[in-house]
Amino acid sequence: MDIYLMMAWRDARLVNPYQKPILVKEEEILEKIWRPDPFFANAKEAEFHEVTFLNFLMRIFPDGLVLYETR
């Protein structure tokens, strides 16, 4: 079973003066940004979907809102 995870949060450290959302495409930048660490409390077994490159999309809005999607 695949799960597509979509999360949103605000980070005051990422407030910026730009008019449009910043699109994060590089893994190096993604690794420097704090992200929630969700878990499934009743999971019996879990593994991360390993691929050649990360499947993610992150947008940072001017008010510090972060939208993050991953598979």
From TrEMBL:
It comes from the Eukaryota. InterPro entries: Neur_chan_lig-bd (IPR006202), Neur_chan_lig-bd_sf (IPR036734). Pfam families: Neur_chan_LBD. Gene3D superfamilies: Neurotransmitter-gated ion-channel ligand-binding domain. One of its GO terms (molecular function) is extracellular ligand-gated monoatomic ion channel activity. GO terms for cellular component: membrane. Residues 1-71 form the Neurotransmitter-gated ion-channel ligand-binding domain. This is Neur_chan_LBD domain-containing protein.
